[in-house]
Design goal:
This protein has 238 residues and is α+β, with helices and mostly antiparallel strands. It is built from five helices and nine strands.
Length: 238
């Protein structure tokens, strides 16, 4: 018997994002370009104005973002959020918030992608440090990722992007067992619970309806330094 799934519908997670207004070397304000390997992500724009720049094997695109826009993309999409005027977004994440719990590789230059230790040294934000130091590190890693991002965007031919894909896959490989466990107790369990409920209803058994519950929670952390901006995050989303 599959127990009732208690997470958000479909095994998704949410966070509230205020996109960084830090200007980069190209004069554009915004976040850190990065890619997810196993998760889709969606943006529900709740305020302000901006865009998301994306880079895939199909090429480079810019999607405008304004209040009411819902934009989403699949694994393998390198994305960079651009803040043009106080851009605020509710982010919907696959696999119980795995994008904020590890499924992300920043587009650092190749020499920083050689092994997990080198990558971590360039990207880890010291959570116990003063806020000013956390901001300094977040800004430095954003600018470093932009160097690699611009090189990928301006490259001729598919090999540089393919090389980044290979490097990213190698970096996350040590964590795949942890990710699989998160998927099993999250999205997979949610789908299995629905399947069992359908089976019961086909047999004329509505007993699961008597187990109905209502839940609510407030953010577990406010203003956390994320890849794209300051985050209000909920329990279990990284």
């Amino acid at each position: 018997m599959v127990s009732a799934y208690e997470g958000l519908p479909g095994g998704v997670a949410v966070s509230h994002l205020s996109v960084y207004d830090w200007p980069a070397a190209d004069g554009v304000c915004g976040g850190t370009p990065h890619m997810h390997l196993t998760c889709s992500e969606a943006y529900v724009v709740t305020g302000g104005r901006g865009a998301v720049q994306t880079l895939t094997t199909s090429g480079y695109e810019v999607t405008p973002l304004a209040p009411g826009t819902v934009a989403w993309f699949t694994p393998g999409t390198i994305h960079r959020l651009v803040n043009e005027d106080d851009l605020r977004i509710t982010v919907l994440m696959q696999n119980n918030g795995l994008p904020e719990a590890g499924d992300a590789v920043l587009t650092l230059p190749p020499e920083y992608l050689t092994d997990p230790e080198t990558y971590a040294a360039a990207t880890r934000i010291p959570v116990d440090a003063p806020e000013a130091e956390q901001e300094r590190v977040a800004l430095a890693r954003r600018d470093l990722a932009l160097e690699g991002y611009r090189a990928l965007r301006d490259a001729s031919g598919p090999e540089p992007l393919a090389a980044f894909h290979r490097a990213a896959a190698a970096l996350v490989r040590p964590r795949l067992a942890e990710w699989r466990a998160r998927w099993e107790w999250g999205a997979r369990a949610a789908a299995a619970a629905t399947g069992e409920q359908l089976d019961r209803l086909e047999q004329g058994d509505p007993s699961h309806l008597s187990d109905a519950v209502v839940r609510a929670e407030q953010p577990a952390a406010y203003g956390k330094f994320g890849m794209c901006g300051r985050l209000n995050v909920y329990k279990g989303t990284g």
